[in-house]
Design goal:
This protein has 129 residues and is mostly helical. It is built from three helices and no strands. It is rod-shaped and about 150 Å long. The N and C termini lie far apart (118 Å).
Amino acid sequence: MLLERLAVVIGGFAAGLLARRWARDGPVPQRSLDRLAREFSARARSHENRLTDLEVRTDVHEAKLKELPSTQQLLAAMDDLLAKALSGLEGRLTAQARSIETLQATVSQTDELLERVLESLETLQEGSH
């Protein structure tokens, strides 16, 4: 729309300049005026077509932008992913801590059993001598 108006203004300005020049030079042949009118109309159609193409492309880009998630949606998704990852990590660390505690208890029980076995062996050795 703006380009059309601009083209009309520029065309009018050019026509005015040409009319002045031709007024100084003498009458303008009708063929020249017809040719200029056809060229002007062709350029106006060309600009209109370009403008229409640009508007279509703009509409396509706007539609694509509307399909993209917003920054808030991206942040919420990232928060969810991070929370799940941390929750999983926390669960694994808790399980490992339990495993370590179980292992410590098992080692402690094994130490106690070994002490008893050694004491029993010492008692047996003292009794047999």
